[in-house]
Design brief:
The complex is a heterodimer.
Chain A (H helix, E strand, L loop, with lengths): L11 H25 L13 H28 L4 H10 L4
Helix pairs in contact in A: 1-2
Chain B lengths: L2 H27 L9 H7 L6 H14 L5 H11 L5 H11 L4 H8 L4 H33 L7 H24 L10 H29 L3 H10 L9 H17 L1 H9 L4 H20 L1 H11 L9 H8 L3 H45 L7 H27 L5 H12 L3 H9 L5 H24 L4 H9 L20 H23 L4 H11 L1 H13 L4 H12 L1 H14 L11 H15 L1 H12 L6 H76 L4 H33 L7 E4 H12 L7 E4 L7 E4 L1 H18 L6 E8 L3 E8 L6 H4 L12 H4 L5 H11 L3 E4 L7 E7 L4
Parallel strand pairs in B: 2-4
Antiparallel strand pairs in B: 1-3, 4-5, 5-7, 6-7
Helix pairs in contact in B: 1-9, 2-9, 2-13, 3-14, 3-16, 4-11, 4-13, 5-24, 6-7, 7-8, 7-16, 7-17, 7-18, 7-20, 8-16, 8-17, 9-13, 9-14, 9-16, 10-14, 11-12, 11-18, 11-22, 12-16, 14-15, 15-16, 16-17, 16-28, 18-20, 19-22, 20-22, 25-26, 27-28, 29-30, 30-35, 31-32, 32-35
Classes of the chains: A mainly alpha, B mainly alpha.
Chain lengths: 95, 888
């Protein structure tokens, strides 16, 4: 339904969540750059070493996982929708 | 290590898995599926990606081509860390549409098309069968590796193992995969068992890795030296292979039927995906951490020519670490079995839902009566499908005899299932993708894959095919399977990926653009592409269980109120219930949908049946109805909005009108009281003096004075009445204007001459140069306005040296005439009312008028097409008359 009105201004939390989503979207792009980096290294006469490139790839791999952990934690910590947040606080007066 | 121990351990492990699955299933049934739904179990279940090919084959791959094996893990890593792009949407759609398999997804997206579903199913079966064979082969090979000292030869052992493994797996899959027809197609027992297997294989591989690095070699530094000294020391990776294989593994990760099963179908909570987005890459990294060390040490230790695919097993065996070898065997066994179970389950669902059931239903429709529980048929067909799939795998294994290297079959299979990708991505993000496009793309991709990859590999030894590979089909050189259109620089796998993806996607796009989708396709396209928007709109509905009332509403819409109600009452009475709403049973839905077919045609009913066989009770028509309803509600609410805006506008207008009327009424009252007052004052004095005169005892001088007073008062009355008349005429619009051209200067002269007499001390300042403006106006009326303004200034200006400035501003089409005195001006509160009738600023005596002057001025100027207003902030009272130079 293309005609659905889209909200222009969002609640702060919703906005934050979307931007974290954007950051998560960037991760695979960063991953592509890192994982294809080995192709750019070494020369035909002196190819890169398996051992050092292996270390590089695993390092990139863990860095990517770390970023993902961080962003997902950030994402899950940001309240989902204001409506839900209201509902929660209504149910639990202490929260 | 004794062979019997191995068999005993394996059997024990299998029993353990059955118990795990049984307990999980039992708990889920009793509603305690808490931990089975946890993100960790979900993440571990994704490890069906890591098959025996990964467990054993990755080391072989690394031993052959170094780091290149990593591409198989990097692709899925990219897909998972980028879950926001694709997986999130896929899972959302899977939930919203109750998708049961990847074939179901495409079939549902492309208008519930059985054709697309069937093509995907065939593709999946052909692509997966060799892969299942591969798993059987790997288990057999690994058993054979232990069997060197048994009375049976390794080959016999392998064959027997293959059969028993296939039978055991079929049993497991049937037992826990088709126990009942779940509404949501989730299999807690299977998923939990797979999660346990995932732990076992990771643990086993890491244990072997640690043994190799710290047991056989001398720690990490030593391993690095050994790698540098080995034959895979250099990173000799072909660029196209690195990129192509990464892409391929990413595509396969999404498209493999078994991956789709665990990733989407078994997903219970979207949140699980966010955890898996990093946890599964971590799992993959851990799985691949020790692959190169194991490969290098294996190449070093084991004799030339030993199978690198079995290094994981043979290194511990040759080093005498029997326990570790057993663990490694169980790891490989886990990898193989979990893959086969899920793949068989996924394929069986596809085969039964997209091929068997449509055919069965069609056959039943032709017959006069349809009776019985469709669910029973579905279960039977699924069970038979599982058996058939495993049988097919076994036959393939038995026939091919394990000739092809593990990794090559794995990649070939990947390319096959990746053919689904264009239709999948296109279906998720492009509303324009149509059934024709999807079917054509799939067929094109599938055919090219068969021609360029599968057939050359399978029939490489036959004369016919080797000649085709060498010289091309019919001797046409640019049709050579490994060098299509003369592309010779790519390795066969990447070559096939390149051409299949390119031509598949092109066929999909072009055919989609050229064809026109039917309504269901368009509806589905919208629901898929905009799944997040729609979930917000109708979120509560789809998640909820289907209600009899919803069905009644839908049925009434299709077959009419009376018929639908009669049908529902009948069914309810049969079930022993009162009223219109029976329980929703498969029988009832069958009856209802057969009835619907009579009204809306078999095609729709067919699609509805397809939905039931898909395990979901939401039918096309209902989706249509929901979409329809949503659209209607949207339209209705839009209309309401428009209407309410209109009402608001009308109400505002009415409010304004009311305010005006109230004000007018107040004004009228005030006017009446004012006018009586104004009339009464002179009348009173006239009466009083005329009475004195009548009595007669006044002298001549007094008489003359009284007569003067009477005369003056009478004149004042006349003037007042004149003014009133004038105003009434003006207000009623009955005035006739005498329009001629006049010079502004002359008009002002005339006005000044009329007002300024010897008694006046007011000094008038003008700039005559500005006054040379011709106006088309009524000169007499306009002069009257000016006179009034000048007279007012004379009356009210309280400055010791009174002064009036007449300022002219030529604005082109109009002209402004300002009358500004140097008195104290008019207070803000009074500014608002000075143009009203009878508004007088101070005392009556001084004014000497009835307070109608400015009201008349306003009417006249209005009639002349101009405005008169009070001009604040001018150091005195100031009035601005704006006049058009020519009347409209």
């Amino acid at each position: 339904m293309a005609g659905l009105p889209k909200t222009v201004f969002l609640q702060r939390d919703t906005y934050r969540r979307r931007r974290i989503g954007d950051a998560i979207k960037l991760l695979p792009i960063a991953g592509v750059v890192l994982f294809f980096m080995p192709l750019l290294l070494g020369t035909p006469e002196q190819p890169a070493q398996t051992s050092s490139l292996g270390l590089f790839i695993f390092f990139s791999w863990f860095a990517l996982i770390g970023m993902s952990v961080f962003l997902v934690a950030l994402f899950n910590r940001t309240p989902n929708t204001p409506r839900k947040a209201e509902k929660l606080s209504a149910e639990d007066p202490l929260g | 290590m004794s062979f019997n121990l191995l068999i005993l351990a394996s059997l024990g492990y299998v029993v353990f898995l059955f118990i795990v699955a049984f307990v999980a299933e039992d708990r889920a049934e009793r509603g305690h599926s808490g931990w089975a739904r946890s993100p960790w179990v979900y993440t571990l279940s994704l490890s069906v990606y890591c098959t025996a090919w990964t467990f054993y084959g990755a080391v072989g791959f690394a031993a052959r081509s170094g780091l290149e094996f990593l591409t198989i893990y990097l692709g899925p890593t990219l897909v998972l860390v980028g879950w926001w792009w694709l997986l999130r949407k896929l899972v959302q759609i899977g939930k919203a549409q109750r998708i049961t398999s990847i074939a179901d997804l495409l079939s549902s997206r492309y208008g519930k098309s059985n054709l697309v579903g069937a093509i995907v199913t065939v593709l999946a079966v052909i692509g997966t069968t060799p892969y299942i064979a591969l798993q059987l082969q790997s288990v057999s090979l690994s058993v054979a590796a232990f069997a060197s000292n048994t009375p049976l030869g390794p080959l016999d052992v392998a064959k027997t193992t293959g059969i028993w493994v296939a039978v055991g797996l079929a049993l497991f899959a049937i037992l826990f995969g088709t126990r009942n027809l779940d509404v949501d197609e989730r299999h807690h027992g299977v998923v939990t068992a797979i999660a346990v297997e995932a732990v076992v294989k990771l643990f086993a591989l890491i244990a072997v890795g640690i043994f190799v690095v710290w047991g056989v070699a001398d720690g990490a530094a030593d391993i690095k030296n050994r790698i540098d000294a080995s034959e895979i020391a250099q990173f000799n990776v072909d660029n196209s292979r690195w990129i192509g294989l990464t892409f391929l593994s990413a595509a396969a990760f999404i498209c493999l039927p078994r991956m789709f099963q665990v990733l989407v179908v078994e997903n219970e909570d979207e949140n699980n995906l966010s955890i898996a987005s990093w946890a599964f890459p971590l799992y993959l990294a851990a799985m691949s951490l020790f692959v190169v060390p194991i490969a290098v040490v294996g190449l070093e230790l084991l004799p030339e020519g030993s199978n690198p695919d079995l290094f994981v097993l043979t290194i511990p065996l040759t080093q005498g670490a029997d326990g570790l070898a057993l663990l490694a065997f169980l790891g490989g066994f886990s990898s193989a079995t979990s893959m086969v179970i899920v793949a068989a389950l996924a394929l069986a669902t596809m085969v039964s839902n997209n091929m068997v059931m449509p055919l069965y239903l069609r056959a039943q429709n032709i017959g006069a009566t349809v009776s019985g529980d469709v669910r029973a048929v579905v279960l039977v067909s699924r069970r038979l499908s599982i058996v058939a799939v495993l049988l097919l795998g076994y036959i393939y294994y038995a026939v091919s005899g394990g000739t092809v290297a593990l990794s090559s079959i794995g990649l070939i299979s990947f390319v096959g299932v990746a053919q689904v990708l264009p239709a999948l991505i296109g279906g998720l993000f492009w509303r324009g993708g149509t059934r024709t496009g999807a079917a054509l793309g799939l067929i094109v991709g599938f055919s090219i894959w068969m021609y360029t990859l599968l057939l050359p590999t399978l029939f490489a030894d036959t004369n016919v095919y080797s000649s085709i590979v060498g010289d091309g089909l019919f001797g046409i050189e640019w049709l050579r399977p490994y060098a299509l259109f003369g592309v010779t620089r790519l390795d066969p796998i990447v070559h096939s990926v390149f051409w299949t993806m390119l031509l598949n996607a092109s066929a999909f796009i072009i055919a989609s653009i050229c064809s026109f989708p039917n309504p269901v396709e368009r509806l589905q396209a919208t629901t898929f592409v905009n799944v997040f928007d729609l979930a917000e709109e109708t979120g509560g509905w789809r998640g909820a269980a289907i209600e009899a009332e919803d069905l009644l509403v839908m049925a009434q819409r299709i077959i009419g109120g009376r018929d639908a109600q009669r049908l529902f009452t009948q069914v309810a009475r049969k079930q022993g219930k009162e009223g219109y709403l029976p329980d929703i049973t498969p029988d009832f839905i069958t009856v209802l949908e057969r009835r619907l077919a009579g009204s809306v045609g078999a095609a729709t009913a067919h699609a509805m049946m397809g939905q039931i066989t898909g395990g979901s009770s939401v039918s096309v028509e209902e989706l249509m109805a929901v979409a329809d309803e949503t659209a209607q509600m949207l339209e209705y609410s839009n209309q309401l909005e428009v209407k309410s805006a209109e009402l608001e506008r009308t109400a505002r207008q009415l409010r304004n009108a009311n305010e005006k009327l109230t004000a007018l009424s107040v004004q009228k009252d005030a006017f009446l009281s004012q006018i009586s007052h104004e009339l009464r004052t002179p009348m009173t004095s006239i009466r009083a003096f005329s009475e004195i005169l009548r009595e007669g005892d006044v002298n001549g001088a007094e008489r003359a004075r009284y007569a003067d007073i009477i005369h003056d008062e009478a004149r004042r009355l006349t003037r007042l009445l004149d003014d009133l008349l004038d105003l009434a005429v003006l207000e009623n619009g009955q005035v006739s204007l005498n329009i001629e051209n006049a010079r502004l200067e002359q008009l002002i002269n005339r006005a000044i001459d009329a007002c300024v007499n010897s008694s006046s001390q007011m000094h008038i300042k003008r700039n005559r140069a500005n006054e040379a403006i011709m106006l088309a106006t009524d000169p007499d009326r306009l002069a009257q306005v000016f006179i009034n303004l000048i007279t007012n200034a004379q009356k009210y200006c309280d400055a010791p040296k009174a002064e009036l400035r007449i300022r002219i501003a030529d604005l082109g089409p109009s002209v402004q005439v300002d009358f500004i005195d140097n008195g104290s001006g008019i207070g803000v509160a009074q500014q608002a009312v000075i143009f009203e009738k009878f508004s007088r600023l101070t005392d009556h005596a001084r004014a000497g008028g009835a307070g109608l002057g400015l009201a008349i001025c306003r009417e006249i100027v209005g009639k002349l097409g101009g405005t008169i207003e009070y001009l604040p902030g001018q150091d005195g009272a100031a009035f601005r008359v704006t006049l058009a130079k020519s009347l409209p």
